[in-house]
């Protein structure tokens, strides 16, 4: 294992590589032999397809969310055919849904020795992990399964938004969008980030999970949390705050009952995100305006900032966002192995990084967004790169740099399709502190009940008064 500063990615070089690879690999792509779905790719690093000819049409060549419906030239990425919306083979009502892709064979493995070969497909964060843990970390590549799906009403609303949604005069406020993805064909980075923040999340949701802070010496601490999420925006309720979040600590006992409530906004300039906290079961409920931006999130041991919740949930006002490109990259996806109820925590969480045996990576197209702190603002992580899934608008990976260009944090969302809803959601988010031997794992199920969709939640449940009334239940 190398030291924390053994790999120092040049952020601008990484972004330049993402931009330049599309043009430089186009000719090679034409000469690359095609692959059948499920067939391992050729030995050479997979190429980039040439630029689209003509203007693709939303809902036709593009999906209702703006993704390229077709597969790529090599067929390493298949066409999108609607995602996973049917029960997988072997499903028994009342039991956990089986892995629909359990018979997939690993294509190949990317190790530290392979970084140069696959560099155009790897995030800087993945390269950093491979360099820091060359003997133990690797990326297992499996066939791409475009499992992201949503109800038809969400698709219809997204198509309608494409002709009317806009960003206000202040460059931040969202206007004239409802229910679906606001900008299926984004014109800039702000629009792409709004797509992530307002993506389809499956309706009212309640889940119980563990957040674990794993140290390099093998020690770990954990919090058992209940998280409730409601999107009045997705329900078409424009009178309520668009996004509502509540987090209640269930364990450890000395913190049980501690709660956090967040109310989002569509105009971060005119109205800040509102937050309240309660310390413990009997603590006072007080406003928490400081739980924002780069405030350390205590349940992650300070590894994550407040705005790293849900990969990014902060206000958009402090950064300039640039839509860099759409690229084919190796991304975490279809993480059924991570939710195997027979796995113990020691099986999945190794010192330094999770056990790569249970991680699944696939080639997917992602939108790359570069975020730079605006002048006269402060943030502990002033330079960031986000990788947004074209099929769902979920941020799948993010890199967080200091002002000198040093990569300090790297995060990945390992997603799972819920065909019953349907929706694609993160099941576990890993956030790595690259300055030390530790990382946080949010969303570990480990014997907890499955997520409850259509939970009986209302906007009134996400207020300070509701915290006072509910007591320890949060």
List the helices and strands and how they pair.
Elements: H1 11-24, H2 26-31, E1 108-110, H3 115-118, H4 124-132, E2 139-141, H5 152-161, E3 166-167, E4 174-175, H6 189-197, E5 205-215, E6 220-230, H7 232-235, E7 244-251, E8 259-263, E9 274-278, E10 285-287, E11 319-332, H8 345-348, E12 361-373, E13 383-389, E14 395-401, E15 407-418, E16 423-433, E17 438-444, E18 452-453, H9 464-470
Antiparallel strand pairs: 1-2, 3-4, 5-6, 5-17, 5-18, 6-7, 7-8, 8-9, 9-10, 11-12, 12-13, 13-14, 14-15, 15-16, 16-17
Provide the descriptors you would attach to this structure in a database record:
474 residues, alpha+beta, two-stranded antiparallel sheet, disordered N terminus
> What are the secondary-structure elements, in order, as H or E?
HHEHHEHEEHEEHEEEEEHEEEEEEEH
- Tell me the total number of β-strands: 18
Described by strand count, sense and barrel closure, the largest sheet is: 14 strands, antiparallel
Counting H and I runs of at least 4 residues, what is the number of helices? 9
Give the % helix: 10-25%
Oligomer kind? single chain
Anisotropy-based shape: globular
Q: Could you tell me the strand content as a percent range?
A: 25-35%
Estimate the mean pLDDT confidence: 90
Ends distance: 42 Å
Classify the secondary structure makeup into a structural class.
alpha+beta
Round the Cα radius of gyration to an integer and report it: 21 Å
Which blocks of ≥5 consecutive residues have pLDDT under 50?
Answer: 1-5, 23-53
